[in-house]
Model the fold of this input.
Amino acid sequence: MRPRRSPALLLSALLPLLLAACAPRTPLRPEAARWANAGQLVLVTSADWDSPRGQLQRFERVEGQWRPVAAPVPVMLGRSGSAWGLGLHTVPADGPHKREGDGRAPAGVFALGPAFGYAPQAATGLPYRAMGADDWCIDVPDSPLYNRIVDRRTAPPAAVAGATEPMRRDLHADGDLRYREGFVILHNPQAVAGAGSCIFAHLWRAPDETTAGCTAMAPESMQALLAWLDARRHPVFVLLPQAQYRTLWAAWGLPAPAGAVP
Done:
């Protein structure tokens, strides 16, 4: 007869196998762990730091992997291209850094704020804020309300003095419809003075027209994006030039670029 192995010996032999089976297949690196709960990803890539053009693609996380939801669509970025912004990521030392008035769209990984628009309500899974004639985003760096959308009727007059960003551009900027539909990209949520403010995804006025630092797109692209976004899935917005994307995608837990090995 073969000698019986004790339960303790069997457990000691099986424990490494059990631990290996329970361990995650692809452990998240520390950077990617900051947005590990994101189930939706809005990815914008551009040719380089100075390019004002990009493409936007939607992804959803399925069994731990990013899967494309739709084909890429064209978007327009800041007139000067893009620069590292302040969001969920650690800001690399290389490359330009976003500053107020530089005409660059913030690059990095960002949470989303509310959707907004001119209509009383919108078809979206994001919280929605209907904008009125007195809603302004404060782009004055030394204001205590810097980088916030406020109602000028209830804000201290000195705190909104000099602001140049009305949210109802149709009423204050010759019928401009760019903010008819959009959502807030949470760049610089700590409101660091001079680091950039009032960053949105919004409609473009023309397909070739750049922005002051936002991401603009066609109305049909925005409507599809808003209808898809769901705050319960903790969506994130990522903007990167191609070279930086190919360098950071694995460490940041992003979809593999074409030709890369996942």
In short: The CA atoms of residues 76 and 257 lie 21 Å apart.
